[in-house]
Amino acid sequence: MLQKKICMVGAFATGKTSLVARFVDSIFSESYHTTLGVKIDKKIVKIKEKTLNVILWDLYGEDEFQNVRMSYLRGSSGYLLVVDGTRHNTLEKALNLQIRVEETIGQVPFILVLNKWDMKNEWDIDTVEIDAIQQKGWTVIKTSAKNGLGVEELFQTLAHKILDRC
């Protein structure tokens, strides 16, 4: 069985922990819990007749007081760059983080995750910006950890991208 490390990175309160909980345990909690350091979960997934043990590293969110420790990313086969669609500044933070992550671990598969799609009437990110990001060749997936929209697709897509590089 293949084992692959995937990191969840982004600004604070973008839904990284909720996405992992929805994917691993099929649950969602309305209460907010700040991740301190890193929280590690795992899930076995089947992709292309292969069994993949996905080790998910949920890194604490970056804010004005703390930066993500890039050393947590070492050994990652891929990562999810999580944005809260209702807070535009989390997209700017994600774009900056992507550069730092790539400088640290090189070019590995990643997906830009536009989370909180269940709140699309409060969306603060314009489709022109999303289109421009996709024009760069990035994979962008809209998700909702709350109702599960796009969550399975998100992890399956990243797992496929990782396996395509093996």
Short key terms for the protein model shown above:
166 residues; alpha/beta; Rossmann fold; 4 helices; globular
The figure for the number of domains is: 1
* N-C termini distance: 13 Å
Count of alpha/pi helices: 4
Major sheet: arrangement of strands: 2-3-1-4-5-6
Number of strands: 6
Average pLDDT level: 91
GO molecular function, one term: GTPase activity
Protein name: GTP-binding protein
Pfam family, one: Ras
Organism: Komarekiella delphini-convector SJRDD-AB1
Describe this structure in words.
With 166 residues, the chain is of the alpha/beta class. The protein has one domain: Rossmann fold. The chain has 4 helices and 6 strands, in the order βαβββαβαβα. It has helices at residues 16-25, 89-105, 127-135, 151-165, and strands at 2-10, 38-47, 50-59, 78-84, 110-115, 140-142. A 6-stranded mixed sheet has the order 2-3-1-4-5-6, sandwiched between helices. Helix 2 (89-105) links the parallel strand 4 (78-84) and strand 5 (110-115). It is globular and about 40 Å long. It starts with a strand and ends with a helix. The model has no long low-confidence stretch (mean pLDDT 91).
